[in-house]
Design a protein that fits this description.
homodimer; alpha+beta; CofE-like fold; 27% helix; 60s Ribosomal Protein L30, Chain: A
Chain lengths: 258, 258
């Protein structure tokens, strides 16, 4: 029933510019590795290249920091323009301490600096922002890849899933892990509640965030200093569905750590 | 540089009783699948079977709940003896609300119910507790497996790593994921700070909790209702080292969500 999983790094993607047809770029990279998309393949794509392709890049030179951003920046030895961009991407500050700003983003994600990032951008005065709607970005990328695959197969598009991931810290635990911020073609979680374990015990609290687990492992083949922004995961029987990374966001009523 | 990862479910482990030689049981299960341990293999083993083998099982019948446990249980419609066991495993209650008890365990882990679990135990009145020292459990299991592999290879033991995992919830995000609670033979994190990304930017906040990412993916081949308590991960170039899951615990000074 359970089968082996393969996590395959997709290489040769290169620099991504605003407006780039990311679907075609990924599709061609897969082909260069002799990888043809198969039903139930999952592609995990880092947020960074999606944001770049969508032009979600901000030049620090054009940013006028507010008084609050200047105050925060001064206290934490940061660039006030950078802080300003973080604030603009946020709808709420969850915690602020020692230069760390944990934000609730406009989408509702809770993460450091609202997902605003300065590494791997390529220009020293530029920042990347999270995609405006990462689920929609995932859907668009999935559709494009399916379209290309259908053309080559001269057949129906294979049912695949696509996850956009970002690298975030967690409370309580050191180190960052990759998490799913955009999902298309699969359910984000598996709900075992009401199922029975092998001993007949009905499980009460087992809802597994499989999309986050898939995002997490993709980081292991991507690394941070290598240019591998895409992983292909093969062998995982995801549950096809609309899916959404927003379903992974705990609502305020059940979150004891807001 | 980056290579393909294989995540292989290890089947046929069966029921584990207190005192079981878990190393031999896993080793024989690997052999039945024609898997020979190779250098840099990683085994991820669920906490549940480690706890069972170590006799970390509590019979509810013998538990006398305190007044506090009875009070909490009444409010949340729980078994007071179960709450009593959770309290005994805890050194601090982090949050308590609507029947959810987030505890700091004796080891320092922060998780719901101090890791006390009633599913997949096999007897309705029994609970499993986390191993007393999961790193030591991981080391012992790793040593035993290496010993068995060295005997069969008639050569030096292969350098392998071993992770004990458990399934925990997280703040802010719905769903649970597998995390590393015991580690042997590898570093728990990779620290990219001071390294430069492909654009020459020095990365400031990139410490990746690779052991958690390895634990996370293992859940995808284990599932919850199948009897697959072990996964073999092949192809990941972990950093050999002493390692410890305790290094993954954020200390109170840098944790804004205690």
């Amino acid at each position: 029933m359970s089968t082996e999983l393969h996590i395959i790094p997709v290489t040769g993607i290169g620099d991504i510019s605003p407006g780039a047809d990311l679907g075609t770029i990924i599709y061609e990279a897969l082909h260069r590795q002799d990888l043809r998309l198969q039903p139930h393949d999952i592609l995990v794509v880092t947020q960074k290249i999606v944001s770049k392709a969508e032009g979600r890049i901000v030049d620090l030179d054009g940013i006028e920091p507010s008084a609050f951003a200047r105050f925060i920046a001064e206290q934490s030895n940061k660039d006030a323009r950078h802080v300003e961009v973080v604030l603009r991407e946020s709808k709420r500050i969850v915690r602020m301490d020692r230069g760390v700003i944990i934000c609730e983003t406009r989408h509702g994600f809770i993460c450091a600096n609202a997902g605003v990032d300065e590494s791997n951008v390529g220009a020293m005065h530029q920042l990347t922002l999270l995609p405006l709607d990462p689920d929609r970005s995932a859907q668009a990328l999935r559709s494009r890849l399916q379209q290309l695959a259908a053309r080559d197969r001269k057949d129906a598009a294979p049912d695949i899933a696509l996850i956009i991931s970002d690298t975030w810290g967690r409370p309580w635990r050191n180190g960052q892990v990759n998490m799913a911020i955009g999902i298309a073609g699969m359910e984000s979680m598996i709900d075992y509640r009401g199922h029975h374990d092998p001993y007949g015990y009905e499980m009460h609290a087992s809802v597994i965030a499989v999309a986050d687990e898939l995002a997490a492992v993709s980081e292991l083949v991507m690394g941070k200093t290598e240019r591998i922004p895409v992983a292909l995961i093969r062998g995982y029987a995801y549950i096809p569905g609309e899916g959404s990374a927003r379903s992974l966001i705990r609502d305020s009523a059940t979150d004891m750590f807001r």
